[in-house]
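Quiz preparation item.
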């Protein structure tokens, strides 16, 4: 059985003191839910102090992005090589990176390879714009993103990757996709990945839903056998809401 994974992406939020307080509270409230993999993904500057706070717990850290290169004269960049000793997971291809920063499929693929070669695990975000869904292109967009990301990746590394389906029109808008939308796309994602690793292995790959997930709607997604957790944005900044989401994931997969 695939182990659920609930990750909290704090984005560009929190002061150092707020981050410390939130991590400390979550260390306490999330300790009971070991059947769920719990990941906190703070801004870069808070990774080291939060590693100290979480030391000795089974809550792990992630990073929100990484550079394509491992080192060099790239002012302002942070490499997967730097992050891997502290972060089990690194997000690549988040919709805000694709559609605000302008990262192409090729850049996302290069970042995914950087994460893998440095021993961390990618959380690869895929998803369509509203106009693409309305034109009936949602599957084609996600297929293109997956094909680009995994074109030069060994099957064993595909299996190390978590896929986060995040319809762009549901990110930070308060408008979540329906559970049926998420179920349909999770099945499609595994169908596409079966071309790289075979159908049986593709069934082992974890697929999260991300996009305006909160304590009220999480159960509708987490109850689906096709969905293995959530990539949580704004609700992950509230300890009570994030804990409720993890609690639901644990209860629904008993």
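Solution:
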């Amino acid at each position: 059985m695939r182990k659920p994974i609930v990750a909290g992406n704090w984005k560009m939020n929190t002061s150092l003191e707020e981050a410390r307080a939130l991590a400390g509270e979550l260390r306490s409230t999330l300790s009971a839910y070991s059947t769920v993999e719990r990941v906190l993904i703070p801004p870069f500057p808070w990774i080291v102090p939060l590693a100290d706070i979480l030391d000795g717990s089974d809550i792990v850290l992630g990073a929100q992005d990484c550079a394509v290169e491992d080192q060099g004269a790239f002012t302002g960049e942070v490499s997967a090589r730097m992050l891997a000793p502290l972060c089990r997971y690194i997000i690549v291809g988040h919709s805000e990176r694709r559609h605000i920063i302008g990262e192409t499929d090729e850049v996302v693929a290069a970042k995914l390879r950087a994460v893998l070669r440095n021993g961390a695990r990618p959380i690869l975000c895929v998803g369509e714009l509203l106009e693409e869904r309305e034109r009936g292109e949602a599957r084609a967009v996600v297929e293109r993103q997956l094909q680009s990301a995994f074109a030069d990746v060994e099957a064993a590394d595909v299996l190390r990757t978590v896929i986060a389906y995040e319809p762009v029109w549901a990110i930070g808008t308060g408008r979540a996709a329906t559970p049926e939308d998420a179920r349909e796309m999770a099945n499609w994602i595994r169908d596409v990945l079966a071309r790289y690793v075979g159908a049986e292995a593709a069934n082992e790959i974890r697929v999260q839903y991300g996009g305006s997930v909160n304590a009220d709607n999480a159960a509708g997604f987490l109850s689906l056998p096709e969905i293995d957790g959530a990539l949580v944005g704004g609700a992950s900044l509230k300890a009570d809401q994030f804990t409720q989401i993890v609690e639901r994931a644990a209860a629904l997969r008993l």
